Amino acid sequence: MIETYTVFLHVNTTTAWLALARPDRRAVIDAHLRPLSVAAAPILTFRWFDAEAFSADPTDIAMITTTSITAWYDLYEALRDTPLWTVPYFETRQIVLAVEDGFESYEARTV
Q: What is the pLDDT of residue 1?
């Protein structure tokens, strides 16, 4: 059975990000995040959630789903090389790795 991993990447925006005009933010995303997520597809899916209206920490949550933990690792390393992390526009607050319904897989292997 192939395990599907879900990574919840909790990040906070920085004042450098908030100081950008919205079209400039879009340009940064289009130049740096979109190419990475497209290159990683279809082995990796990427979804973005805004949380700042409800939570001060994190302000945003990325949900990455993959069957390859190496694909996740490579994406994160690539992200850290972009202005998203080097300026920085975002700061990692927490990374949570999970397996959906992992107990079912465990039971199938052990029963």
A: 63
